[in-house]
Write a structure and sequence with these properties.
This protein is of the alpha+beta class. It has helices spanning 22-39, 61-64, 71-77, 83-97, 106-114, 138-145, 194-200, and strands at 3-6, 9-12, 156-164, 167-174, 180-185. The strands form two sheets. A three-stranded antiparallel sheet has the order 3-4-5, with no helix packed on it. Helix 3 crosses helix 5.
Length: 203
Amino acid sequence: DERILYRGEWFPGVYLKVGASRADLQEWARFEALVNTWRYHRGQDGRRAFTRPIAASRQDPAILALDTNTFADFLTQAGFTGERFWWMITYATRDDYCSLPDQISAWAGLHSYSRRALPGAALLDAAPPTLTWPEGNGFLMKGLAAPLKEHIRPGQLAFDIRPQGEGVHISARNVATGGTYVIEAKRVIFCGPRFLARRLIAP
């Protein structure tokens, strides 16, 4: 189940009911209705607007247009103003995308919620079927890392990534020794929040 960390305690669900007023719950119910409109939206080909994997989602122009507007602007235009509502939305986008609502597209924001909803169930209490392991995603990490052990360098901190000729130079520091060195690579895949990319990757 989804969980929310609030004032040092974990609460179940995708919405924090503790301390919510009637107006708060009404606004969230309106958001649920909006999300479920997209959740059940299908095209002539029968495909859903938002599903997993993403490649299985519809590619209609009206849906793709959501990618040209931020999630924050989309929700503001829809009339959502409550402080608790925006706290929840911000909590969710930071959790799912390591970004704020004005840093992701409306498509990404709606996808995050639409894929959670279940037929005949409300977002307040619904949780999608989940496949997990006792060690969580650590199970997947170990499986992915196993065949690549000789190429993995733990304890290394990259602090500068910049194009160099036809390749890329990565300046890194060995956390244990404090020594620095440069890695020359043909390509680099950066996996991290956008705010870090702006500080690490040279134009």
